[in-house]
UniProtKB/TrEMBL annotation:
One of its GO terms (cellular component) is cytosol. InterPro entries: UDP-GALP_mutase (IPR004379), UDP-GalPyranose_mutase_C (IPR015899). Its EC number is 5.4.99.9. NCBIfam families: UDP-GALP_mutase (TIGR00031). Keywords: Cell wall biogenesis/degradation, FAD, Flavoprotein, Isomerase. This is UDP-galactopyranose mutase. Catalyzes the interconversion through a 2-keto intermediate of uridine diphosphogalactopyranose (UDP-GalP) into uridine diphosphogalactofuranose (UDP-GalF) which is a key building block for cell wall construction in Mycobacterium tuberculosis.
């Protein structure tokens, strides 16, 4: 073995694939019983509808290197992601756009009129100096829209006062003064034609790659554990960075999600793939209806059944799957301490969402793995 990769998510598999293509022998271990990390998906057995087990995953990128790379393993459908939100029993389009604004104010504003109105409503804060999520939200869209669509959704998603959350959390949500309601701004988007798992398996399908599942790096009863491998073979580690150092600098905080999945005896539950629930009286943040991610599979999906998943968000304990880094000031200090410790580890390379404590979209995880391979490992 020339390289040990801990974790078979997109980061680990990209490293493994590049190393194998360069003639290195690679072993990938994962503590889960399946490959692919959080992008893993499987067909719901009763309906055959593809369900993303760890939350809906939409691929999008503007990075030509990443787009060329991922197309070696899968084709993409022409799916374009759109999200709607329900507020006080009425459905509005997201991200906030001219359609949302006109529906909310029961008006027919032109782009310039809507901009002038929002500017007037947003006057209390300046987006450039916004110190936290609440100030940023109000600066971007004004208080009435912020309170309707952002405040309570964010409180459900983070269970943290928006005044204590970093402004960047909502920078990902554009505000548009047109009727364009594409969720992403990227050049390319789509879903893998044969599903995520087929894509991930193709990345690992190389005679130089061996994958061992249900194998935990910290389990000393299995031979490829931390004690036995560090300093003996180069390691790419994509598990949680605090766990690697046995929480020596404290625990980094994460949010986890609970998914409540149901097969319903109807053809169509909500007419779209994702419906957010903006109000505090609904305990879940959103409902996913998975058949709508693949309209091109209409002839093979049932017309009298559908799969819906309600998503609930809460703080993660050590026993939970970590999903979103919370990134409080304490977390940022902890992360710096772990980065110092990581520098001292001989030939151990920390990568991916958990290994760097960073929210990374799939294209970012793949892009940073390609950089790590090219710049450090190759
Ligand atoms: P992961 O996929 O988390 O893989 C890490 C792997 O390491 C896991 O398989 C884990 O089991 C393994 N591991 C951990 N510890 C150990 C250990 N001790 N021993 C062995 N193995 C271990 N991105 C998008 O681009 N679009 C989206 O729409 C999108 N939606 C998302 C929705 C949710 C709810 C979440 C949480 C993420 C979403 N993402 C999305 C991000 C996407 O999941 C990540 O970009 C991607 O999973 C990152 O890959 P990774 O390899 O860094 O991490
Ligand atoms: N957000 C919101 N209302 C919505 C959707 C998003 O307030 O209807 C805010 C919320 O704070 C969320 C952030 O925008 O955490 C990012 O939303 P996105 O949908 O990109 O998050 P993800 O899909 O990763 O959960």
């Amino acid at each position: 073995m020339d390289l040990l990769v801990v974790g078979s998510g997109f980061f680990g598999l990209t490293i493994a694939e590049r190393a194998a293509a360069a003639g290195r022998r690679v072993t990938v271990i994962d503590r889960r019983a399946h490959i692919g990390g959080n992008a893993y998906s499987e067909d719901e057995p009763e309906t055959g509808i593809e369900v993303h087990r760890y939350g809906a995953h939409l691929f999008h990128t503007s990075n030509p290197t990443v787009w060329e790379y991922v197309n070696r393993f899968t084709d993409f459908t022409s799916y374009v992601h759109r999200v709607y939100t329900t507020h006080k029993g009425v459905v509005f389009p997201l991200p906030i756009n001219l359609g949302t604004i006109n529906q909310f104010f029961q008006a027919a504003y032109t782009p310039d009129q809507a901009k002038a109105l929002v500017q007037e409503l947003a006057g209390e804060f300046d987006a450039k100096d916004a110190a936290n999520l609440e100030e940023k939200g109000i600066a971007l869209i004004g208080r009435p829209l912020y309170e309707a669509f952002i405040r309570d959704y964010t409180a459900k998603q983070w269970q943290t006062d928006p005044k204590d959350l970093p402004a960047e959390v909502i920078s990902r949500l554009p505000v548009r003064y047109t009727y364009d309601n594409r969720y992403f701004n990227d050049t390319w988007e789509g879903l893998p034609v044969d599903g995520y798992t087929a894509w991930l398996e193709r990345m690992a399908d190389h005679p130089n790659i061996e994958v061992k599942l249900s194998t935990d790096y910290f389990d000393e009863s299995q031979p490829l554990n931390k004690k036995a491998t560090v300093g003996q073979v180069p390691v790419v580690y994509t598990g949680p960075v605090d766990r690697y150092f046995d929480y020596a600098e404290g625990e980094l905080s994460w949010r986890t999600l609970d998914f409540e999945q149901e097969v319903l005896p109807i053809g169509d539950f909500q007419g779209t793939s994702v419906m957010n629930y903006a109000d505090a009286d609904v305990p879940y943040t959103r409902i996913h209806e998975f058949k709508h991610f693949h309209p091109e599979r209409a002839d093979r999906y049932p017309t009298d059944k559908t799969v819906v998943v309600r998503e609930y968000s809460r703080f993660a304990t050590r026993a939970d799957e970590p999903y979103y880094p919370v990134n409080t000031a304490d977390d940022r200090a902890g992360l710096l301490a772990y980065r110092d410790l990581a520098k001292g580890e001989r030939d151990v390379h920390f990568g991916g969402r958990l290994g760097t404590y960073q929210y990374l979209d799939m294209h970012m995880a793949i892009g940073s793995a390609l950089s790590m391979w090219n710049n450090q490992l190759a």
